[in-house]
Specification:
- This protein is mostly helical.
- It folds into 3 domains: 8-50, no CATH class; 68-148; 156-218, no CATH class.
- It contains 7 helices and 3 strands.
- The chain has a 3-stranded antiparallel β-sheet.
- A hairpin with a 4-residue loop joins strand 2 and strand 3.
Length: 219
């Protein structure tokens, strides 16, 4: 999941991800915190997995509650990126105009224009990276919010014969094999578009009122 911590103190306690590693004594979890710290030697069992899930679901809940903060950050970084691009373009345009009108370019002007362009571009790269990070956070929060809004419907997915029509085989397999496929632990395995397709299929089945030979739960 994305990092929805708001400051360094929150990042110290925010579980961003975890992975299973093989050891001589058996499988273990490594817990990755938002500040980059990695805790090792965590027993890989159902009890710890459920704890991780509960913690991440709570983090997601808090993230949704703070969604406007991340939207605001995305807007600000977008403005900064746009301004940087304008400055770089203006420097290049100014140099070109000067060359065409005077037939030559002062070396000092060249140095200034190049320097301005380089500094601006170097400043744009991290700003653009931040823009994409915040955009990714907002999009994931929208997906989580949609999932939570339709939680009851999604919990009844097994009763619909055509609920998975239009979703990828990978997502279909996840839903058919996992007990809780829409858990926060699987948030990277499905998209909001997948959820929308599933909900649309279920609502269309309900609306037509047709009887089906089998449902997902009877396969």
């Amino acid at each position: 999941m994305k990092d929805y911590s708001l400051d360094k103190e929150q990042a110290k306690h925010y579980i961003k991800d975890f992975r299973t590693v093989k050891t001589e004594g058996g499988d273990e979890y490594e817990i990755i915190f938002a500040d980059g710290t990695v805790f090792k030697n965590v027993r890989a069992d159902e009890a710890n997995l459920q704890k991780i899930e509960r913690i991440q679901e709570e983090q997601a809940k808090n993230g949704v509650a703070n969604k406007e903060t991340f939207i605001s950050r995305r807007t600000k970084t977008g403005v900064l990126t746009g301004l940087s691009a304008v400055v770089a373009a203006a420097a290049g345009y100014g140099l070109t105009t000067l060359a065409s009108t005077m037939g030559f370019v002062d070396p000092t002007a060249i140095t200034f224009a190049i320097g301005t362009g380089v500094i601006t571009i170097l400043g744009t790269i991290p700003a653009f990276s931040k823009l994409m990070q915040n955009h990714g956070k907002v999009k994931e929060l929208e997906k989580i919010e949609y999932r939570d809004t339709h939680k009851e419907q999604l919990s009844n997915i097994g009763g619909y014969a055509n609920s998975l029509v239009g979703v990828s085989s990978k997502v279909a397999s996840l839903i058919e094999e996992e007990e809780n496929p829409f858990s926060i632990l699987n948030i990277d395995s499905f998209s909001q578009e997948d959820l929308e397709t599933i909900i649309d299929n279920m609502e269309r089945e309900q609306k037509t009122g047709l009887q089906y030979v089998k449902s997902q739960s009877s396969k």
